[in-house]
C-alpha cells in the first residue's frame, strides 16, 4: 500500500500583532516602484522556516514528528525580535525580501532540529541558517537597483511552539496545513 506524499517543512509562526505589523509593511512596500517585480507572501503564510524537508510519506512524517518531539522536549520557549529588511542573496540577483530576526536561541533551535533529523537520514542543509521571515520572492531576472526604505516596525514575540507543516502548491500560492504542533517547554 502506497501512502500519499506530503511536502513538509518545520516553522515558527509569529504572533498576530507581529503578523499584522509585517502585513502593514508589505502593503507599504507594494507602493514602491520595484514592488511589481515581487510575488508577495500572504499574511496567513508568514512564518520562520526552521527546516525544509520536502516530499515524504506518512510513515516518514511520523518518524520526523517523533524525532522533533523528542529533541525539543527540554527546549524552552524564547522571544524573538524583528529587525531590519533583508534582500538576499544580494541586490544584483535578489531572490527574497524578508525581515531579519535576532535571538541566538532561534539559531540553536534550528540547529537542534537539523542535528536531530540527520540521525534519521534527513539531509543536512548546505547553507547556514539565517533566521528571517520571507515577505516576498523576486521574479526572475530582476536587477534590484532601487533603495529600500525600511518599513519594518520592530516587534517582539514569544516562541512557544514549532509547527510541522504540509505545503500544498496551488496556482494562487501555497496553502499550509498543520500536521503537528510541538510545544516548547515553559
The largest β sheet comes out as:
5 strands, antiparallel
Structural class per helix/strand content?
A: alpha+beta
Overall structural domain count: 1
Tell me the Rg in angstroms.
17 Å
Q: What is the correct CATH architecture?
A: Alpha-Beta Complex
Order of helices and strands: EHEEHEEHEEEE
Count, helices: 3
Strand-residue proportion: 25-35%
Q: For the residues shown, what is the average pLDDT?
A: 91
- C-alpha termini separation: 41 Å
Strand order in the largest sheet: 2-6-5-4-7
Query: Tell me, what is the CATH class?
Result: Alpha Beta
- In the predicted model, the low-confidence regions spanning at least 5 consecutive residues are none
For the secondary structure, the number of strands is: 9
Look up the CATH topology. Cyclic Phosphodiesterase, Chain: A
| Residues in helices, as a percent range | 10-25%
Q: Which geometry do the CA atoms define?
A: globular
Amino acid at each position: 500500500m502506497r501512502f500519499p506524499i506530503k511536502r513538509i517543512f518545520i516553522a515558527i509562526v509569529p504572533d498576530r500583532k507581529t503578523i499584522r505589523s509585517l502585513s502593514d509593511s508589505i502593503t507599504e512596500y507594494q507602493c514602491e516602484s520595484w514592488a511589481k517585480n515581487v510575488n508577495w507572501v500572504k499574511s496567513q503564510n508568514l512564518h520562520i522556516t526552521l527546516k525544509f524537508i520536502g516530499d515524504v510519506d506518512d510513515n516518514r512524517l511520523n518518524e520526523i514528528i517523533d524525532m522533533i518531539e523528542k529533541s525539543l522536549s527540554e527546549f524552552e520557549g524564547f522571544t524573538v525580535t524583528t529587525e531590519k529588511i533583508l534582500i538576499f542573496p544580494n541586490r544584483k540577483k535578489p531572490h527574497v525580501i524578508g525581515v531579519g530576526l535576532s535571538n541566538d536561541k532561534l539559531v540553536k533551535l534550528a540547529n537542534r532540529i537539523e542535528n536531530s533529523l540527520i540521525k534519521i537520514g534527513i539531509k543536512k542543509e548546505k547553507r547556514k541558517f539565517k533566521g528571517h521571515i520571507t515577505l516576498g520572492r523576486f521574479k526572475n531576472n530582476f536587477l534590484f537597483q532601487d533603495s529600500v526604505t525600511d518599513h519594518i516596525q520592530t516587534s517582539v514575540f514569544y516562541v512557544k511552539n514549532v509547527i510541522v507543516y504540509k505545503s500544498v502548491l496551488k496556482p494562487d500560492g501555497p496553502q499550509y496545513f498543520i500536521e503537528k504542533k510541538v510545544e516548547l517547554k515553559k
